[in-house]
Specification:
- The chain is α+β, with helices and mostly antiparallel strands.
- It has one domain.
- The protein has eight helices and six strands.
- Strands 1, 2, 3, 4, 5 and 6 form a six-stranded antiparallel beta sheet that branches.
- Residues 1-28 have low confidence and may be disordered.
- The chain binds heme C.
């Protein structure tokens, strides 16, 4: 994992004793979301032999949104499997960026950029793109056929007919700045598994004045980031879109309101407001989930 950064330059100096409700505790908030690939390219030895993936032995319990009809006794299988890390998001919140800072990383061998595909410039084999297909190349970034009726008996195979193959391409090539950053960090991480992972980009709220607007309610707990619907709660995310080829595979690109924007989508967790069944007139119901769906689900 990346090392914790220095505290935000604009954060106030540390008060000596105060611990409870200390905004700096929030300033250090950090979350991860990761995506694991069951045996790279279907070849279990690939993971273990070249040591290029962060590898875990896990129990996998596939989550079925819709259980097969008719048999309430069907249990979710719990399967031992060796997994390799293919992508992860790391987000952190600072005192001056209550919209959080959204960073995404991928394994370097996942997919080529669309520019690389256009130039026929490939770098060996990829996890989700077959460079040397001849004539039978699947359409890039085509979504699997719908509907998906999961069958627990298939265990980790998603469909009986698994002839559909995805051919994934990165829609937004890395910027030169991101490539340069990767070069610097890869030289520092040489010899570790992390030199095989790269930064895709970082999305951050770029309108500085906007980020210092806090909840207008005097009752909001410090650091008052429970927004009471500001005009632009997202404070101009830059870049406008950000997607990881393994986590937002099918919503890459730059189509307004459709393509992946971390802040815009996670902003939905802020604007969702739970109300008690017997609300008092005039009572304000601030949402506590703060750009994270995990906290929104917490009971
Ligand atoms: C279309 C909506 C959407 C987009 C776009 C999106 N996410 Fe998420 N993200 C989610 C949902 C929904 C969850 C919760 C999934 C669950 O609980 O299983 C989640 C989970 C997470 C988590 C785990 C913490 C949490 O909130 O539950 C992190 C960290 C995260 N996403 C980061 C990112 C980053 C970084 C990006 C941009 C590269 C991004 N997300 C883009 C919807 C989105």
């Amino acid at each position: 994992m990346p090392k914790p950064e220095a505290p935000d330059a604009k954060a106030k100096p540390e008060p000596k004793k105060k611990v409870k409700n200390d905004p700096r505790l929030v300033a250090a908030a950090r979350e991860l979301r990761d995506r694991w690939l069951e045996r790279v390219n279907g070849d279990p030895s690939a993971l273990l032999s070249h040591g290029k993936y962060d590898v875990r032995k896990e129990l996998v319990a596939p989550e079925y949104e819709v259980m097969p009809p008719g048999d309430p006794k069907v249990k979710r299988p719990c399967l031992p499997e060796t997994l390799g890390l293919i992508g992860f998001h790391a987000v952190h919140k600072t005192a001056s960026r209550p919209q959080w800072i959204w960073t995404s990383f991928e394994h370097v061998k996942n997919v080529p950029d669309k520019d690389e595909v256009a130039a026929n410039k490939f770098d060996g084999r990829y996890n989700f793109f077959k460079a040397n297909c001849n004539g039978d190349c699947p359409t890039p970034n085509a979504t699997p056929p719908q509907p998906w009726d999961p069958d627990p008996a298939l265990q980790l195979r998603f469909r009986k007919d698994d002839s559909f193959k995805s051919q994934i391409v990165r829609e937004t090539p890395l910027t030169d700045a991101a490539k340069n950053m990767n070069k610097i960090f890869h030289s520092m991480l040489q010899g570790t598994v992390w030199e095989n992972y790269m930064l895709i980009s970082t999305q951050w709220p770029s309108a500085f004045g906007c980020t210092s607007l806090h909840a207008q309610s005097l009752d909001a707990p410090a650091p008052k980031t429970d927004f009471l619907k500001q005009p632009d709660m997202n404070c101009s995310p830059a870049p406008t879109y950000l997607a990881n080829s393994t986590l937002e595979t099918y919503s890459q690109g730059d189509i307004p309101l459709a393509s992946s924007s971390c802040i815009a989508c996670h902003g939905n967790a802020v604007s969702f407001q739970m109300r008690p069944s017997n609300p008092k007139p005039g009572e304000v119901h601030l949402n506590q989930s703060d750009f994270t769906f995990m906290l929104e689900k917490a009971q």
